Amino acid sequence: MSFYSYLKKLKDSNNTAVPVASLLESPNYTVDTKCPNHPPFPEAICTKCQPSAIILRQQPFRMVDHVEIASPKIVDEFLAGWRGSGFQRFGWLIGKYETYTDQVPLGIKAVVEYIYEPPQDGSIDGFQLIETEFENGIDPRHFAIFKDMNLEIVGMIYTDLIDDGSGTGKVLERRSKETFFISSPEILFIAHQQALHPFKLPIDPSKKFSSRFVTVVISGESEGGIGLKAYQVSESAVAMEEAHLIAATMDPSKMLVRSVDDGIEGDEKPLYIPQVFYKFKNEYGFEVQKAADPLFPVEYLLVNLSEGIPLQPKPLLKAPLSFPNPLLHPNSSNLVDYFKDILNSSPKELAASDFLSNMNLLLFLSQNGLIANESERSFLCQSVTCSDSNSLAMFIEQSETWKRIMTAVSETVARNFDNSESTWNCLHCTFVNEKSFIPHITGLIA
Prior knowledge:
Structural class: alpha+beta
């Protein structure tokens, strides 16, 4: 059931005088080192400070019920990286949370408006995120754009695609009920990310419970097509990962319960491993309990979500043309190519064309300092968010920054079309430039 339905059920089955927030307690599988009855673990331990045995069962609720990709173009542009290289790709899902009550009672959906690809090294069988000075690999200037547009990180997405070699564009099916849906290493990765993105309860903002962070996997389907599947992992998975109780195995469908002799890299503290059980129905239909000795199926830690793209998409960003990802292609010529065919448009025509409603364009302008003024940037982003063509036209007419950018683009386009000379002289120095060099945009960026 949806989280708010679960919350309502908890409230109805308990004393109404008890605050609802107090009914929500996340599991904790670590030893209490502040027990007053004895020296801290590992010198001593008692039944009060040691965690109880863990009994795994399907989580009865999900924090997010549905993942909606606002437009098929969003996924197509993300897949272009895989199609061009054959290497797996990773991205942060940028969007917002909305109600989903037309499909699920008291439901919540994550609406994805953009996929942000942080610095990464891809390979045929995986990817590795490159550590940067920025949190999540997101440039703060880019994050400011998301904030101005009332967007946030709602999850992550990555590919697991292998071409079948037929030359038809079909891919291999690697994930199914006969193999696995999410592997044990992925479970640990997802659990770690959910722990980093906790959900603050609206009824009590000081209290955090579970997470709304979603994961979307793009993989092959039975007929060779490409499909999307959305998941979360359970609270138990997050708690077990935080307590270092579980580890990945060579069998992707199985999770390993660590032993007390296992060490944690970089941590000399000994582990306390409580007993782990999981329940299932046997061939006679009776529910039985089995010890994880030491393996158990990863499905006990998974929470399935629905996913899809609306039949009539209404994305926040409506640009008719694509603009290259500024992280992957930080080239000033992209700006010239993007605007060259609409330079003679009036401010109202340009505003109505939705050319400015492009996240990669906005990130490029911010990343290169072309629109560095905070109030101008916020005004532009909010006008795009509200699809307010009147405000956009006002920005185009009145912003001196924007006029300088478009003047530089116009002069560069004119110069590229002028075939009378193969070189030109810089107005600010004695350098003789080749025809292909783009001076004005580069000067603005510098």
